[in-house]
Each structure stands twice: as C-alpha cells, then as structure tokens.
C-alpha cells in the first residue's frame, strides 16, 4: 500500500483509480463491505484501489463537541496494510480551506484531475464539498458527463442498528467490549510506550505496566478488563488491565491504563506495547481501604484466569 499526502497537486504516473472516500474510523464491518465492493469492482475494470481519508478527523475542526477516535492515523494505516484492501491511501489535510471547496471543484480538480479517479463507491450517507453538496444525486448527475462511474452501498444493519463508528464508540465507552469487537471484526486495541508509574501497584504486590491514553483517543469505560499484550511486536500474553483514576489510593484525576501481565516479571519500561481488549470484568470503584482493594485485585485475576481457561 502506497501512501500519498500531497493530493492538492496532480499526481504523476498514477494508474486509473477505483476510489472510496471517508474517515473509516475503526474500519468496522460497514467499512469493510465498502472496501470489499471497491476491490471487486476494481478487478472487473482493471483499476487500482484507493481510499481517500482526512487528517485530522473533520470533527476536530468543529471544536468541543467533536468525537474522540477509535484509531489514530498510524493505527488506521497499520490495519489497512494488514487487511490488504487497497493499493493507495490518499491523506488530505482537513482544514477550513478544504471546507470552502465546492463539490464541483473537489470532484473535478482533486478526484478526477489529481488522482485519476475512474470509479467511486461510497457509503449510504456520504457527502463532500462546501455545505455537503456532493451527495449521491450530485455524483450520479455528473458521472456520465465527466466520465466516471459511481455506486453507493446500502446502509448495513443488524438487529435494527446501523453499523457505524458512532455505535462502536458508544459500546467502548459503555464497556461493551465484546459487542464492539464483533462490529470491528477484530479486537479493539491501544498502543503506547510503557512509562514509570509511582509504584503504587507494586506496593500492593502487583507490578503493572502503565500507559497514558493518547490525545483524542476514545476513552473506554473506567474499570477492569481481560486483555492481551504484545511487547515490542512479540507474541501476545494474557493480562488484566485497569483503566481509570485509582480512587482508592490517589486523588490524581488523570486516567491511566495499568496492565498486570500474568506470570511475567520483566522490566519493560520504555518498550512499545499493543494491548487488545477481550472482555469487561467490572467497573472501577473506591474501596474502603488498601486491603479490600488488594483482595479484589486477587479476585479479578482469578476471573481473568477462568476466562482464559474457558
């Protein structure tokens, strides 16, 4: 997969492109249906496949009501490479200047002229251009005139719910990890560098690996999770994770991921890790004293082991 960022200029030596456009946050089942359709139609037409996405996420331009992301750009790129749907990833800088480009100019100058689009497939609710004028009717009206083909994927639903990034975010925020994983079709994951903590968990007899959440990262529900962790791209190991503010032992309100790796006692400070979420065990809560917290951690670990064994 080739990544191209400067699509405000005409790309040299690009093949004819079958394109889809969107943020594709989470690259969930609904997105995968679009990408599968893209690949199928590209093969029929002897075209190369491409996704045009926006960075930063457009909601960041609109301020405080914006949504945190399921995956940042680097994670999105990693997943796209692994799942091998596309030949090209076009990344366009989303700012207020882009917001002012008309649908006509975006279509003719960027999609047709700069990246050589010959086929376009989008989701059921996709629009582009100033005031969202570039809708399905606009694309159908212009397709024959400007010599490209356009198709739109129908809304993908299950149990009267629509597959969407918003739904995945809500599930993660509510601790419904299994349900979120089903829609993502993979395990929700985070990554980061292990930092030195204050040694509070170690004093309880449980040495943890600690990660701070990234800016604009979706916040899982505060609580305890069954997870698995990969250190420096090694095999995944079983672990238990607490995400929250540790109300029993500190007044610090800054959330942190604390991971206790089962049957593991190595120094991994400064190492990059990836953590995959498997199940939600319980909510974070304040205990009456340290001993009660320590007993509960022991019970959590036993529940974690039971999940592994079953």
Overall pLDDT metric: 89
CATH class wording of the largest domain: Alpha Beta
Number of beta-strand segments: 14
Q: Looking at the structure, what is the overall shape?
A: elongated
Order of helices and strands: EEHEHEHHEHEEEHHEHEEEEEH
Spatial separation of the terminal alpha carbons: 38 Å
What is the number of helices?
A: 9
The largest sheet has its strands arranged as 1-4-3-2-5-6
Task: Kindly provide the radius of gyration, computed on alpha-carbon positions and rounded to a whole number of angstroms.
Answer: 22 Å
Tell me the count of domains: 2
Please state roughly what percent of the residues sit in beta strands, choosing from under 5%, 5-15%, 15-25%, 25-35%, 35-45% or over 45%. 25-35%
CATH fold naming of the largest domain: Rossmann fold
Helix- and strand-based class? alpha/beta
Low-confidence stretches: none
> What helical percentage do the residues reach?
25-40%
The CATH H-level superfamily of the largest domain is: HUPs
Main β sheet profile = 6 strands, parallel
Compact description:
The chain contains nine helices and 14 strands.
Describe the structure.
The protein has 310 residues and is α/β, with parallel strands linked by helices. The protein has two domains: 2-162, Rossmann fold; 187-309, Riboflavin kinase-like (Elongation Factor Tu (Ef-tu), domain 3). It is built from nine helices and 14 strands. It has a six-stranded parallel sheet with strand order 1-4-3-2-5-6. A six-stranded antiparallel sheet has the order 9-14-11-12-13-10. A two-stranded antiparallel ribbon has the order 7-8. Strand 11 and strand 12 (236-244) form a beta hairpin. The two termini are 38 Å apart. The model has no long low-confidence stretch (mean pLDDT 89).
């Amino acid at each position: 997969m080739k990544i191209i960022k400067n699509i405000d200029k005409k790309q040299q030596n690009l093949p004819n492109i079958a394109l889809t456009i969107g943020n594709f946050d989470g690259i969930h089942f609904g997105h995968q249906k679009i990408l599968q359709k893209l690949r199928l139609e590209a093969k029929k037409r002897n075209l190369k496949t491409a996704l045009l996405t926006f960075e930063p996420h457009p909601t960041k331009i609109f301020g405080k009501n914006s949504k945190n992301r399921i995956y940042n750009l680097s994670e999105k790129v990693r997943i796209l490479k692994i799942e091998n749907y596309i030949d090209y990833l076009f990344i366009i800088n989303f700012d207020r200047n882009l917001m002012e480009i008309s649908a006509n100019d975006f279509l003719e100058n960027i999609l047709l002229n700069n990246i050589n689009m010959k086929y376009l497939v989008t989701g059921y609710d996709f629009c582009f251009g100033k005031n969202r004028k570039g809708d399905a009717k606009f694309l159908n009206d212009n397709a024959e005139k400007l010599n490209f083909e356009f198709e739109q994927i129908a809304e993908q639903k299950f149990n009267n719910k629509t597959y969407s990034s918003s739904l995945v975010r809500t599930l993660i925020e509510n601790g419904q990890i299994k349900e979120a994983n089903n829609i993502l079709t993979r395990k929700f994951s985070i990554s980061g560098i292990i930092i030195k903590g204050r040694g509070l968990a170690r004093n309880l007899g449980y040495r943890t690996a600690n990660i701070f959440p990234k800016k604009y990262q979706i916040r899982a529900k505060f609580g305890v999770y069954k997870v698995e962790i990969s250190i420096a791209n090694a095999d995944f190991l079983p672990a238990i994770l607490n995400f929250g503010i540790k109300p029993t032992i500190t007044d610090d309100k800054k959330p942190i991921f604390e991971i206790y790796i089962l049957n593991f006692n190595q120094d991994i400070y400064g190492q990059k890790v990836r953590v995959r979420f498997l199940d939600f065990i319980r909510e974070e809560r304040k205990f009456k004293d340290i001993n009660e917290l320590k007993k509960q951690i022991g019970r959590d670990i036993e529940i974690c082991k039971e999940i592994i064994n079953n």
